[in-house]
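Subject: for your reference before the review

Hello V.,

The reviewers asked for a structural picture of the protein, and I figured it would be easier to keep everything in one thread rather than splitting it across files. Below is the amino acid sequence we used in the manuscript, unchanged from the supplementary table.
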Amino acid sequence: MGTGWAVLVTVGGGDDDGPVVVDRRRAELVEGPGRFVYHLAAELPPAEAEAVASEAGAAAAAAAATALADVVRAAEAAGHRLARAVVVGPPGNGVGPVAEAVRTHTTIHTAEGELYRSAVRAACRAAGLVVDHVPARELADRAALTLGRPPEAVAATVARLGRELGPPWRRQHKDAALAAWMSFAE
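And here is what came back from the structure prediction:
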């Protein structure tokens, strides 16, 4: 997940060597400078800031719903049915009032992250998926524990998936694939 975008990776059951990647994509939720919605809102009068944040939230929700519908169609075309989604990051409680979100640079970044994670979570729930959360800093350890494999073996499998697919295979792709794989065992 990044400011204004999300990486979506769908995995299916493989063999004892791990899962196979069914689909991967980057979903643009809000493009251009407007993706830094709370940075922009901090410079606006309160009423305008609320309107800008509301518009960005609606745009992100619509884009996430469209992206997820595309993912579901791709999975179904490959013979898979999606049941779960895992959002890497905190569970979140939605974004609070804009005035609170723009108090500090840290709260601005927190609000922007939550805005985009909330849009993805809502799209997943609307599609009937069970949504789980894993904080990024806990992902590797929790995955190894859940999968019953040594951390090195888990990392090697995720690296292999990337080699098989080719670029891009950045940290967000690896985290998304690992979270999806882990959801099989839960």
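For the response letter, the relevant points are probably these. The longest strand covers residues 5-15. The radius of gyration is 17 Å.

Happy to draft the paragraph if you're swamped.

O.
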